[in-house]
Design the sequence.
């Protein structure tokens, strides 16, 4: 008997079988459609940090570039910048402190319509700080610009594009 007991203990133990869980079936087809949830992809979260606000050096020659950089900053980071008023405040802070008093009234009132439209504020900056004489001179030069016979086209194109950018909207 002892031999039989030792033979039983030497037989390998079979692992217990897993039972499949029984899913309860809803009684009505509408209940079935309610119980089935479509699988949704996980939410995509952006880890992109907003870029720094460009700072203007106060030079009229760099104003157009500064306004362009501001526009890109606002358009790219619009989701995290807050209200239009907050955007106008950040634009105001990008202007040198000695030039801020000239645009402070616009910031206090929110512009002619009191809506703090940042596009209108950028237009106001252009009107306030651009050098109108430089703009007019560039427009005159643009009308007379010609490519020299010995000049490379790339050089001519660079000069032409510079004059166009100096002219602004009315060039």
Sequence:
């Amino acid at each position: 008997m002892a031999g039989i007991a030792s033979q039983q203990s030497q037989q390998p133990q079979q692992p217990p079988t897993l039972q499949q869980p029984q899913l309860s079936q809803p009684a009505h087809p509408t209940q079935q459609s309610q119980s089935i949830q479509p699988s949704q992809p996980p939410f995509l979260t952006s880890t992109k940090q907003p870029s720094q606000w460009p700072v203007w050096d106060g030079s009229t020659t760099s104003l157009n570039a500064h306004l362009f950089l501001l526009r890109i900053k606002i358009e790219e980071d619009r989701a995290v910048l807050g209200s239009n008023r907050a955007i106008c405040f950040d634009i105001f802070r990008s202007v040198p402190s000695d030039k801020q008093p000239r645009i402070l009234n616009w910031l206090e009132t929110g512009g002619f319509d009191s809506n703090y439209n940042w596009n209108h504020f950028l237009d106001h900056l252009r009107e306030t700080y651009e050098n109108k004489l430089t703009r007019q001179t560039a427009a005159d030069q643009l009308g007379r610009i010609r490519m020299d016979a010995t000049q490379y086209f790339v050089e001519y194109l660079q000069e032409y594009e510079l004059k166009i950018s100096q002219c602004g909207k009315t060039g």
